[in-house]
UniProtKB/TrEMBL annotation:
Transmembrane segments: none annotated. It comes from Yoonia ponticola. CDD domains: cupin_KdgF (cd02238). Pfam families: Cupin_2. Residues 34-92 form the Cupin type-2 domain. InterPro entries: Bacilysin_H2HPP_isomerase, Cupin_2, KdgF, RmlC-like_jellyroll, RmlC_Cupin_sf. This is Quercetin dioxygenase-like cupin family protein.
């Protein structure tokens, strides 16, 4: 159980910090509807993403891939990336170092 609130980050998209430490942060993103988007963006943190449920189309530095339950991917530091929800589900992201902007 986490003490962090669920935050709406976009239409049909939520974020909840699950655990944090200055060197590492675990965050769950919920996508409640097909077509919901994680807008293209970049950040200096290295990110790993685990697809807990649902299906997603990810773009990482212009390379597009489709992922589903059990799949993982790595987003390098400063890579422009985002996703589109193909089937509602949940992504679990790990960031190093911690995303202080999420606190």
């Amino acid at each position: 159980m986490t003490d962090f609130p669920v935050i709406e980050t976009g239409e049909n998209v939520t974020r909840q910090v699950l655990a944090d430490h200055p060197d590492l942060m675990l965050v769950a993103f919920g996508f409640g509807k097909t077509g919901a988007e994680g807008a293209l963006h970049n950040h200096p943190h290295v990110q790993s993403t685990f697809v807990e449920s649902g299906r997603f189309r990810f773009t990482i530095d212009g390379v597009v891939s489709e992922v589903g339950p059990g799949d993982t991917l790595i987003v390098p530091s400063n890579a422009v990336h985002g996703c589109v929800c193909l089937e509602p589900g949940r992504l679990v992201d790990c960031f190093t170092p911690r995303r202080d902007d999420f606190l």
